[in-house]
Every structure is written in structure tokens, then in C-alpha cells.
Automatic annotation (TrEMBL):
It comes from the Bacteria. Residues 18-439 form the Mannosylglycerate hydrolase MGH1-like glycoside hydrolase domain. It comes from Streptomyces anatolicus. This is Mannosylglycerate hydrolase MGH1-like glycoside hydrolase domain-containing protein. InterPro entries: 6-hairpin_glycosidase_sf, 6hp_glycosidase-like_sf, Glycoside_hydrolase_63, MGH1-like_GH. Belongs to the glycosyl hydrolase 63 family.
Amino acid sequence: MLWANWTGTSTVPSRALYPHQWSWDSAFIAIGLRHLSPLRAQLELETLLSAQWGDGRVPHIVFNDAVPLDAYFPGPDFWRSATAGRRAGAPAHLQTSGIVQPPVHALAVWLVHRADPGLSRARSFLARLRPRLTAWHRYLLDARDVGGAGLAAVLHPWEQGMDNSPCWDGPLGRVEPAAPGGFRRADLDHGVPEDRPTDTDYGRYVRLAAEYRDREYIDSAGPSTPTVEGSGTSTVEAPAFLVEDPAFNALLIASEYALALIEAELDRPARPARTDRPAKRAARVRCERARALTETLVARLWDPEREIFLCRDLRTDALLTERGVTGLIPLVLPALPPRIAAALVRTACGPHFGLGGVTRLVPSYDLTGPAFDLRRYWRGPAWFNTNWLVEKGLRLHGERARADALREAVLDAAGASGFAEYVDPYTGEGCGARGFGWTAALTLDLLHDGRNGTGGGDLRTERCGHE
């Protein structure tokens, strides 16, 4: 299905349900594609990053002009990137959304390079993408540091990628839904309402996106920060939804490590006698930043009583108490303190997620939580990308047996479900779209690991600090 979903320059997640290019989908797809075609994996990432805005953001959707406008909502006529995004540097030559998704891209770029270093060097793959990745991280670490502690904030559930999670119910409750007659849900043409977000929640998503668009996609520097424009002073009102999310920031930190490896690799051809080269220093600084951000993540989002990372609502400066799979994703971080890694493993395997016991795969939300729903989008079903990340994190922290068991469960569920978008965490029964892009791609990656015995060592990016 990866071949069937290929457009010539990128891969759509699903021909029917998601007919454009999605940001973190393409990163995961490239990670799998590197085992079949390193060239196509490079093109996947190059196509996505060519849509980067002038302020550094990588939009969460790059629209295909050949797809009818009514095939997906919100479409390009809703986002109006070329006009509403002009001040933020939206490209004029193509249409995109105006929000972002989790920054898996530097990690994907590094892994794709490692699949065929000769081809990568011949095409100057790293050299061409490094400035874009650097600008992307700078945008997140500066413009999105709303809390002032160093972590990036998301201002829409779609940005975090797990958009219908119960983790968002509290902040979303502040948002007045858009009028039902003001939009048409194209997703219900391809999915049953019981599996998808409710009309009320979808109306809240639309309202948040429209308000951000109407602010011309300009980011507030803080929840109540005054800004000066011209000779007058105005206040950029913070969005109702403003959250520091553990998975989003863990993936940013993992990509900081990967970007350090990219910088070190690009510096390698220089004269080896000099150890203080600018690129070498830049790689070292980036590694130090990644370790410092890990400490900040623990300080800001770790809950020692619940033994999981939680989301922080920046409008109230309080942790949200819902347990989601987002809180397990920091397992991918090499500098995570061992006591916290061990606690996360206990949580993943305990009653809240049931891994290795009552569930085959890690569910997207707490099995014991009041909002758990076995079928509804991100409110209980297991997703392949989050399970891939948990598998890598378990292996990274020495939980080889658990990682092996999860890997086999993912492979079984992917094949039996027709490479479904997501599955029942107990049985592996498929839900959502079939022939889903990242499901197929990450299955390839796990199969490759099994055949070659690499077992997830690709995420051992802590070595960048010792080069």
C-alpha cells in the first residue's frame, strides 16, 4: 500500500480519508521507506520540508491541488495560508495548513541518511535539510515557548497529533464550538460516527483553527503578553487551548539529538586535527540542550504519584490529570533518569495500560479512565506509531523482553487488520482506514529490525554527546 499511496513526490496516509501530505505521517513513512527505497524516503522528507514557512514552522498538511476541495475538511480554502499566513512567511507557491505536528523530522532525516549514506552524501541530503531543520526547531523552542521554561506549547489538539484524547477535554471545554452549519465533516464520508470525534468536539477544533487563522497565524509570546505594533500597543490574546504536551516535547528532544548527529556528520570531512570546529561545537551545544530539555520535561510534566508524564494547561498552569499514551512517549529519551524510565515501564504494564497482561498493544488512553472508549479515535484504541515509539523506548532502556513481545504484537495486529489506522488494544481488531501509510511503514521498520538484530538501536542518539 505504500506504493499505492505514493503520489510521485510524497505518500498520503490514506487515499480516501487523508488524501494530502501530513507532516508527522511523512516522517514515520520515511522511516519505513528507507528500507525499500532510500531515495524515495529522502524525497518524502524533502517534499514536506519544501513547504516550510518563513518563520520556521512546518505545516501539518501540504495540500495536493489535484485533490477536489471537498475531499477533505478543513481544506485549503479554510486555511488560506497564502493570504492569512503572509506575515508568518507562508509559501506563495503552494497551499498548506497553518498549524504544526510533532517534530519527528530530524530523527527521520538522520535515520534515512543512515540507510544509504553514499546516496545521501551524493545528493547533499543532510546539507540541504539541516538549515530547514534548524529553523524548525528554533521556531518551536522560541515562538512556542509560551510557558517560559523551554518547552514548546501546542495551541490546537491537531498539533499534538492525538487530537481526540481525553487529555484535552478540560482545555477544550473553554472553547465555544463553531456553528454546526458552518462546516461539513468530510471524515464521516469514510468513517462511522461512533469511531470519530463528536460533532461538538469537531466544532471546537474548527473554532480554534479559525481563530488562529484570523490572527494571521501569529504566535503569542505568552498567555497575556502585550505586543507592540507600529506606535500603538496591543495585546495578542492567547488561545483558549494552550498546552505543554509530553510526547510533542519528547519527540522534539529526540530530534535535537538527531540534529546534533546531523551536524557532526556534516562536519566530519573537515580536517580531523581541529576539535573546536563550529559544527562540532554546535553539535555539542545541541546535545547539551537536549539533556537540559529532558530535565525540564521532568520538572514540568512528571507526576511522581501517578508515575506518568502529564500535560500542563498553560492557561491555568496546572497539570491535567488524565493519563494518555502521550505520557509514556518520553521513554524514547536516552537521558531520562533510570528511576523515571522504570516507573514508566510499571505504568505501561500496570492496570492503566495493561501491556503484556490484559492488552496486546498500548492503548491511547487509560483503561480505567472515565472517558475510555474502545473504538473512538484516540480515546482508547491502540495506534501503531505510538506503539512503535514505546517499543523503541522499552528497548532503549533495557526492557528487551517486553520490547520483543510488543514488536511481535504490533506485527501481528498490522497484518491481521489490513494495516489499519488503529486497532482494538485487547484483540487487535482493525478500526478506521485500512492500508494506512505509517502502519505499513513502521511494520517494515520492525520487520527490518527483527531480521537484522538491530532492535531499535537507532534511537541510541545519546552517543552524540561523546563524539
